[in-house]
Amino acid sequence: MSGSARAFDEVPGLRALVRRQAGVVSRSQLAALGVTDGHVRSHIAARRWRTVSGTLVVTHLGPLTLEARHWLAVLGAPEDSVLGAHTALTVLGLSGWERDRVHLVVARGAKVAPQPWLVVHESRRLRDADVRRIRGLPFHSVERAAVDAAAWQPSWRTAAGLMAAVVQQRLTTVEKMHAVLDDVGAVAHRKVMRAALADIAGGADSLAEIDLARLCRVAAIPEPTRQAVRLDARGRRRYLDAVWELGGGRRLVVEVDGVGHLERERWYDDLLRDAEIGADPTTVRIRIPAMAARHEPERVVAIIRRHLGQPTGTVRTSPDSRRARF
User: Fold this and answer.
1) CB 301 within 8 A of CB 215
2) Between the chain's N and C termini, which has fewer beta carbons within 10 Å?
3) For 28-73, what is the HEC assignment?
4) DSSP-assigned beta bridge partners for residue 24
């Protein structure tokens, strides 16, 4: 009788299984409850259920929820597969980085039935220590998911931003992220991720200022005065990252912002500082991202030269942009 419309009432455990797995079940799970392939065919013929692949069944005809797609991804893959990258990060609380498709991490060479909403990543690093169980589903930890997601980005800027986001949203710490990076081996954007974490940890501004001073020396630009003192509107001492005297009482101020400046409190303070400095007609102030001095030095040099009234010249960079040649 388990092929009838009353199957959820007639088959012990079926209703609980379907609820737990967002309407998705495997044929092996059904068989364990006494629901045969013939019963499944009866439900499909009656337009109560549908198959998604040869081994998976959805026990309704409505749209698939995100949780249902999670179950379809996991049940349709080898046992050690894990929901990771952006999918894990979203479930674990990261906001602003959501993706439409489900990201699944499988062992190298594993076969998974393709789905239009599924992204499959192969990995040699599938370890139980990296896995967290949430409502019965396996997800990578924040740290592992963040490193994977960042490494799989085509842009180093996105990788750096993701590192900042997981720490700034307090899902993990810089120390925990460093520990994972120490253990992960050679992955794309690893140096960028480390630099972004250094920015977040608070050493960013000083590190970026050193990078900026180095660029000036290499590019034959006069080095600026660093950490020049100014008084804010309340008379408190504040410091300017880099200052050039332009002559005639005018000056150029360059502020080097690490990713920590994206935090709401820093952003608030930065806006007020801009307003205070901008009120001085003798000061030209520009802001550059800390990562730019390391990864796009030619653009930074061209910008500074333009404001200093120097010819921009021709800029060449080596494959390692940290060793720029001007």
Assistant:
1) yes
2) N
3) HHHHHCCCCHHHHHHHHHCCCCEECCCCEEECCCCCCCHHHHHHHH
4) 58
pTM for the full predicted model? 0.67
Q: For 76-134, how does the pLDDT look when each residue is reduced to its tens digit (9 = 90+)? A: 999 999 999 999 999 999 988 999 999 999 999 998 988 999 999 999 889 999 999 99
DSSP string, 174-240: HHHHHHHHHHH-S-TTHHHHHHHHHIIIIIHHHHHHHHHHHHHHHTTPPPPEEEEEEE-TTS-EEEE
Q: Quote the tokens at residue 240.
A: 């300017």
CA distance 326 to 109: 45
Residues with Cβ within 8 Å of 16's Cβ and at least 6 positions away in sequence, in order, are none
CB environment 283-296: b (16+ within 10 A), e (fewer) = bbbeebbbbbbbbb
Q: Give the number of residues written for the chain.
A: 326
